[in-house]
Structure formats: C-alpha cells, structure tokens
Amino acid sequence: MTNDHPHPDDERRLWAQFAAANPAARAACPPAIELAAWIDGRAAGPQQDAIEGHLAGCAECRDAVGGIRLAREAVAGSLAGAPDRVKEAARMLVGARPEPRERRLYLAGWQTIGRWSMAAAASVAICVVGYRVGGSWLAYDHAGADEVVLGEMSFGLLGELSETGLVVALEGDLR
Amino acid sequence: MTMEIDLDACIRGDKQAWDAFVERWAGVIHAAVQRAFHGGRGAARAEIEDTVQDVFLRLIKDECRLLRTYDARRASLATWLTLVARSTAIDRLRRKRVPTIPLEPHDAPAASGSREDARDAPEIPLHLLSGRQRLVLRLLFDEQRSVAEAAVFIGVDQQTIRSTKHKALSRLRKQLSTAADGGDADAAGPVEPHGERQS
C-alpha cells in the first residue's frame, strides 16, 4: 500500500473518475420478489451482486430500499394497524372478484343451455299461438265464401305465407 | 403473533382465506403506503386509504397475477408486500405529479464529480468493481451517507463497509496508475461479487 491514510478528497476523486467513465445506464428494475429477497438477505452470489450493481446505478430502487427499511421499522413500532373501514373494503373485494375460471366456464355452459332453451320455448309458444290465431282467422275468412276443407286451405295459405318467410318455423312442423 | 395465511386458498378465491389475509396484512400495507406518501409530500387520509385498496386490488387483479409471483422461499411476505405497497403509492403520486423535465439525469456523472472529470475520464471498465463495491462508494460519496448508514442500508456490519470501500479504492488506484503508465487499461481484472479477484 502506498498510502495508509488517503485524503478523503482523493478517495472522492477516484470514485468520481470511475463514475464519469461509467455513467449510469437506465436498466430495467428487478422484480419486487428479487429486491425483497435481497432486502431479506436471502439473495446470494451473482444474483446478490446483480441487485447491488443495479442499486448502485438506480436512484429509484435505492429510494425504495431505504423506504422499505424505514417502513418496516414503522410497522414494527406501530400497533395501530389499518382502520377497520379499510379492512372491510378490502374484504369486499373478494366478492367483487370474477369467479375462478373453472366455475365461470361451468356457469357459462349452463347459461348457454338456458338461453337456447328459453329461445326454443318462445319459438314454440309463438308458433302455437300463431297457428291458433291464424287458424281462426282462416276459418272466419273463408268458411262462408268457399266450401273447402279448412285444413287444406290452411295448408295452402301457410304454404304461400311460408314463401314470404312469415311462418318458416311452423312450416317444417306442418309438413 | 403470527398467523398462517393460506395464499393458495386466497388465489383460488377462498373468502375465508382472503379475509384472514386482509386482517393480517392490512396494517403492514397501510403503514407502507402512509410512509411512502409522507416520504413524498404527504397525503390526505382518504388518499392513503384509496391507495391501500389499490394495493389489494392489484394483488387479485387478473386472477391474482401479482399475488402468484410471490415466492415464500425467496422473501418474506412482509417485505414483498411492503415493496408492492410502496410501488403502488409511488405510481399514484407520479400520476398526480405535473410532468417536468429534469435538468440532469438522476444518476448523471455530475453527481459524482465535475464536468471536467467526465471530459477527462480515463477508461475504467465497469466490471473493475463488483456490484457491492459500486453500491458502497455510491452511498458513501454520492449520497453522503455515513458508514453506519450504508451498513444499515445494505444489511451488513460497518467493518464490511469499510473493508469493501478500501478494496474498491485500492483497485481504482491501481487501475488509474497502470493506465497513467500506459499499461493495460483492464490490468486489474474483473472482481468476484464480494471484491475478490476472479481467477
């Protein structure tokens, strides 16, 4: 060693030269779990050195580490905890969460079946009502004018109407 | 008091497990958020409470995507949650802040030395110093922290800080004197993570 008691300015100058030759490049910050591992002293070897190298160049992460150390002291020294309304609101979040994926798929399957069943029932109801109303109207309209069998006439008219697309659903059933 | 919280059950959407999680960790998250706000410019109580809700929401969003990243083998839940809470608070503060353009980058060389240093800087490879050595010098010289403060920051004893600083400066001196003599600029060689020379 050439100098046992170097002047602080000399040390500072050495660091300044190093820092000037290696300006901090903006690198992506490590994930929270890696930084947390380092803070807890559980990072080792290259991972530890990588985090420390990042901290040397990232003021934001240094602030975070400093803040965490202080926050942990504050938590340790505080018995107050969070206000009840904060906890209550957080508990409610789980009710507002979407259902787990499997359950959502299961429910979605039944909902689809239910919707199609409702649509089919509605179609049948419309057809039945339509047939009844249509049949009465046909009987009233033509019974006195032409002596034809109501059933045949109905089929004929329904056939014409079906071409216009009005009784498409019923047509299949009648044939 | 320690309470075992079943995080897997929380992730599955178990209401009881979630309620236990909230009961156990709301205080830690609240304190971390409060600390982050007070470290900045302070905040109204309502804002702090909204941010705490943001943290919980962030944890369970997208089928607990964030909560799933936690690994109990790597870090304590207290530290991890404090980091997440702090980061949420900082994001919120940042969104509220009026955008400004800094006159100089956060970690610009000017923070360590004069512009003259930057202009006349000799070639010194980054890997000459380990990550820890760079961090120690940054804390001591740029942030003006004492040895005791740097030790608390890194989580080591003060003697480790002194020894790391001494080794780092010795390497720099050697490197600069070699460079001044016209020798190999990288003569000192890279270092192992804790300041030891690589073989």
The arrangement of helices and strands of chain A along the chain is HHHHHHHH
Q: How many H/I helical runs of chain B?
A: 8
Order of helices and strands of chain B: HHHHHHHH
N-end to C-end Cα span of chain A: 109 Å
- Which pair of chains forms the biggest interface, and how many residues does each contribute? A-B, 74 and 82 residues
Structural class of chain A: mainly alpha
Q: Helicity level of chain A, as a percent range? A: over 70%
What is the mean pLDDT of chain B?
A: 82
Q: Which structural class do the helices and strands of chain B define?
A: mainly alpha
| Count of helix runs of chain A | 8
Shape of chain B: elongated
Q: Characterize the quaternary organization of these chains.
A: heterodimer
Overall spatial form of chain A: elongated
The counted number of beta strands of chain A is: 0
Residues in β-strands, percent of chain B: under 5%
Low-pLDDT windows of residues of chain B:
195-199
Q: How much strand content do the residues of chain A show?
A: under 5%
What's the main sheet of chain A like?
A: none
Report the radius of gyration of chain A as a whole number of Å: 41 Å
How would you describe this structure to a colleague?
- The complex is a heterodimer of chains A (175) and B (199).
- With 175 residues, chain A is mainly α.
- Helix content of chain A is 74%, strand content 0%.
- Chain A is elongated and about 115 Å long.
- Chain A starts with 7 loop residues before the first helix and ends with a helix.
- With 199 residues, chain B is mainly alpha-helical.
- Helices cover 62% and strands 0% of the residues of chain B.
- In chain B, helix 2 (15-39) packs across helix 4, helix 6 packs across helix 8 (158-180) and helix 7 (147-154) packs across helix 8 (158-180).
- In chain B, 38% of the residues are buried.
- At the A-B interface, helix 1, helix 2, helix 3, helix 4 and helix 5 of A face helix 2, helix 3, helix 4, helix 6 and helix 7 of B.
